[in-house]
Specification:
alpha/beta, five-stranded antiparallel sheet, five-stranded parallel sheet, 13 strands, globular
């Protein structure tokens, strides 16, 4: 591979851009609008941490020590708190647009990793889910739709479940989660923060949702952001008793 050498002028330009963004940091706000550049005061970004006793770390997930992770009983899931370093860019997205966020200090970001298929305790290098600004912002639109009886498909890290339960318009929440192990391992950490009556159904959302009646269903079960429109259209067709369905990464978003 050819090594690319930057000129002194290019290095200076990169440094000056870094300095500009670090000087531009503002406090995080849960209603903050997405922009291609988000520069945030690190001390103001505090997502929900389910295992506060764990030490944050930026080591690879497979190299974390026992004080830095919590594993599910069969080692299918590993929870940890990633230490995102000050000034390091983190990807954001909004619809078809992408951007980046930086923080002016180190920030703890909760994450769950899955094991490789058929290999418990052998972890994928990238998180299955993490509470980055991109995740929180792209879930927010669905949360704002929640009212009455709400179905949430996909437990994830519990952020949307907690936020939906805080809404005055919501009367009841039904959680549909594929993994019994994740429910047993992680939901006990979430349940004390859920403010409405909660029913839990373990099963495949594509099989369970067509049997349910609700005002709104919020579907966050897709491995990737984008490209899930066909699956959501089919799910809507099969769920006549759910008045409105919203899918993460499939909705047309507005600023």
């Amino acid at each position: 591979m050819t090594k690319i050498e930057l000129t002194p002028a290019q290095k200076l330009e990169i440094f000056e851009e870094y300095q500009r963004r670090m000087r531009s940091c503002v406090p995080w706000d849960s209603a903050m609008k997405w922009a291609p550049e988000l520069d945030i005061v690190g001390a103001s970004y505090r997502p929900f941490i389910a295992f506060p006793e764990l030490a944050p770390s930026d080591a690879p997930v497979a190299e974390l020590n026992p004080a830095e992770h919590a594993d599910s009983p069969n080692r299918l899931f590993r929870y940890c708190i990633r230490l995102h370093r000050a000034g390091r860019r983190l990807l954001t997205w909004w619809g078809s647009q992408t951007g980046s966020v930086i923080f002016d200090s180190d920030v703890p970001i909760p994450a769950i990793f899955q094991c490789r298929e058929g290999e418990p305790g052998v972890w994928n290098e990238s998180p299955w889910m993490s509470l980055t600004p991109a995740e929180l912002m792209t879930l927010r639109e669905g949360t704002r739709l929640a009212k009455g009886r709400v179905v949430i498909a996909g437990l994830g890290l519990g952020h949307q479940l907690i936020e939906v339960s805080r809404r005055l318009q919501v009367k009841e929440v039904v959680l549909v989660e594929l993994s019994q192990e994740l429910v047993d391992f992680y939901l006990p950490k979430i349940r004390p923060h859920v403010k409405k009556r909660l029913t839990v159904i373990v099963g495949d959302a594509f099989a369970v949702l067509p049997t349910l009646a609700a005002n709104v269903a919020l579907v966050d079960i897709f491995p990737n952001y984008g490209g899930n429109e066909a699956a959501m259209l089919e799910l809507r067709r099969r769920c006549p008793k759910i008045k409105k369905l919203w899918g993460w990464g499939t909705a047309t978003m507005s600023l």
